[in-house]
Design brief:
The chain is an alpha+beta fold. The chain has 3 domains: 211 residues, Rossmann fold (3-Layer(aba) Sandwich), CATH 3.40.50.300; 82 residues, Translation factors (Elongation Factor Tu (Ef-tu), domain 3, Beta Barrel), CATH 2.40.30; 107 residues, Elongation Factor Tu (Ef-tu), domain 3, CATH 2.40.30.10. The protein contains 7 helices and 21 strands. Strands 7, 8, 9, 10, 11, 12, 13 and 14 form an 8-stranded antiparallel beta sheet that branches. The chain has a 6-stranded mixed beta sheet with strand order 2-3-1-4-5-6, sandwiched between helices. Strands 15-19-17-16-20-21 form a 6-stranded antiparallel barrel. The longest helix is centred in the middle third of the chain and has 15 residues. The chain is globular, with a radius of gyration of 24 Å.
C-alpha cells in the first residue's frame, strides 16, 4: 500500500494536535479504552467536549501546559493509503523538534488560526519546510467555527500566504478551511461552508501524488554492512547490505564504489532472502558483486557515468540544535548516510533570519534553533549530492563528541570553492 509521511506545523494553539486527534478518531484508529481515557481526562479538566488533542499530547508536561513539546508520531491507514504523522511543536523554543519531524515528510500541514491570520511562527515553519525540500504544502485555515464560517476570513489568510509562499519552493499549495474541533472539512465536507468547493483534508491526503518526488535517476546505495554467513553451504556468499537512497539497481548493472573508485558489476540482488530483479528506494536489500573487491560500511555504490560528488570541503545550510552555540573552528563528529568522520566548521557564512529571509553576514555564531550557511572540512571524503537533488545523500548531522548529543542537522549545498 502507498505510504505518505506528513508533518503538522504552525503557531502555538492553532489546533495541530486536535486535528491529528480528529483524523485518528474519524478514521476509527482509536481503541475504545483510549477514547474512554481521553473522555475521562476531558471531563476532569472541565471541558464540555472530548479534547482529541490528548491523543497525541502524551507527555505529562504537554497535557499540563496544553502545548506540544516533542515530536509525536502516529500511524493510521485508509483503504487508499497508509500514513505516518509527525505532530511537531509550534513554540519557537522547539523549532529544532519541528525540523526533525519535517526532515522525512512528503507533505506539510501548516495550520493557521482563522481569527489571528498568518503569524510569524506559521511563516517560519513554512520556510523551514521549504528548506527541507518538503514539496507539498496544505494550509489548514482552522477554527472557522469561531469566525462564523465566514469566507472573507479564509480569503484573507489565503491571500497573505500566497504572497509569502511565492518566495518559497513548493510544488503545490492547497488551502482548506476547517474546524478540527467539530470536524468540518476534515474527513467529511462541511454543510456550513457551502462557498468552499475544494477537497476535504482526508481526500487530499489520500490522493496527493508524491511518486515523482523520489529521485529514480541517480542510483545511490550507501553500504551499511557486509554480509558473510558462517554456514558451510553459503561460505562464498558476500552481500552488501543497505537501503537504496536513489535510483534503480538491477543485476548486470555496472557500478563504481566510492570513494575508492573500484568498478564491478551487480551479480544479483537479494530482498528479504529472495532474488529480486531490481531495487529502488526505499528498499533495504543486499547487492552481490561479480568481483571480490574491497567494500565496507560507509562506501557508496553508484553508476560509473552518474556518480556522487566525493570531497572533504562542503558548503551547507545547518539548523543548530545544541544549547551551546556553534562557533567557527569548532570540531564535531559528522554522520552522513552510513559514513562517520570528524568535521571542522571552517566558516560561518551568514545567519539566516527565517522570518524575513535576510542574511546576517556579520554573525559570529549560531544559537539554538538558528539556521545559517557554513563551510565544513571533513577528515575523510564524503560521497554526497546536493540536498535539493537527494535528501538522503545530501543531509548529515553533527554530534558533540563530549556529550554524544546531536547538535546540528545540515543540508549540503555543494562543494566549497574557496
Amino acid at each position: 500500500m502507498d505510504l505518505l509521511r506528513f508533518a503538522t506545523a504552525g503557531s502555538v494553539d492553532d489546533g495541530k494536535s486536535t486535528l491529528i486527534g480528529r483524523l485518528l478518531y474519524e478514521t476509527r484508529q482509536i481503541f475504545d479504552d483510549q477514547l474512554a481515557s481521553v473522555e475521562q481526562t476531558s471531563r476532569d479538566r472541565g471541558f464540555d467536549y472530548v479534547n482529541l488533542a490528548l491523543l497525541t499530547d502524551g507527555l505529562r508536561a504537554e497535557r499540563e501546559q496544553g502545548i506540544t513539546i516533542d515530536v509525536a508520531y502516529r500511524y493510521f491507514s485508509t483503504p487508499h493509503r497508509s500514513f505516518i504523522i509527525a505532530d511537531t511543536p509550534g513554540h519557537p523554543q522547539y523549532t529544532r523538534n519541528m525540523v526533525t519531524g519535517c526532515s522525512t515528510a512528503d507533505l506539510a500541514l501548516v495550520l493557521v488560526d482563522a481569527r489571528n491570520g498568518l503569524l510569524e511562527q506559521s511563516r517560519r515553519h513554512a520556510l523551514i519546510a521549504s528548506l527541507l525540500r518538503v514539496r507539498h504544502l496544505v494550509v489548514c485555515v482552522n477554527k472557522m467555527d469561531l469566525v462564523g464560517f465566514a469566507e472573507p476570513a479564509f480569503d484573507q489568510v489565503r491571500e497573505a500566504f500566497t504572497e509569502f509562499a511565492a518566495r518559497l519552493e513548493f510544488t503545490d499549495v492547497t488551502f482548506i478551511p476547517m474546524s478540527a474541533l467539530q470536524g468540518d472539512n476534515v474527513t467529511v465536507r462541511s454543510a456550513r461552508m457551502p462557498w468552499y468547493r475544494g477537497p476535504t483534508l482526508l481526500w487530499h491526503l489520500e490522493n496527493v501524488y508524491v511518486g515523482s518526488d523520489r529521485n529514480l535517476i541517480d542510483p545511490r546505495f550507501p553500504v551499511q554492512y557486509v554480509i558473510r554467513p558462517m554456514m558451510d553451504a553459503a561460505h562464498d556468499y558476500r552481500g552488501l547490505a543497505g537501503q537504496v537512497a536513489a535510483g534503480v539497481f538491477r543485476p548486470g548493472d555496472d557500478v563504481v564504489v566510492l570513494p575508492g573508485g573500484q568498478r564491478s558489476r551487480i551479480a544479483g540482488i537479494d530482498l528479504a532472502g529472495c532474488p529480486a530483479t531490481e531495487a529502488y528506494p526505499p528498499e533495504s536489500v543486499a547487492l552481490r558483486l561479480e568481483d571480490p573487491i574491497d567494500v565496507g560500511r560507509g562506501d557508496m555504490l553508484c553508476r560509473p557515468n552518474n556518480a556522487a560528488t566525493v570531497g572533504q570541503d562542503i558548503e551547507a545550510m545547518i539548523c543548530w540544535f545544541g544549547d551551546r552555540p556553534m562557533a567557527p573552528q569548532g570540531m564535531y563528529a559528522i554522520k552522513h548516510t552510513t559514513r562517520s568522520a570528524r568535521a571542522q566548521v571552517r566558516t560561518l557564512r551568514y545567519r539566516l533570519d527565517v522570518n524575513t529571509l535576510s542574511r546576517d553576514e556579520g554573525a559570529g555564531h549560531l544559537a539554538v534553533n538558528e539556521m545559517g550557511r557554513i563551510a565544513l572540512r571533513t577528515t575523510t571524503p564524503l560521497c554526497y549530492d546536493e540536498y535539493r537533488r537527494n535528501r538522503i545523500t545530501g543531509s548529515f548531522i553533527l554530534i558533540d563528541e563530549a556529550t554524544n548529543g546531536t547538535v546540528g542537522a545540515g543540508m549540503i549545498l555543494g562543494a566549497t570553492l574557496d
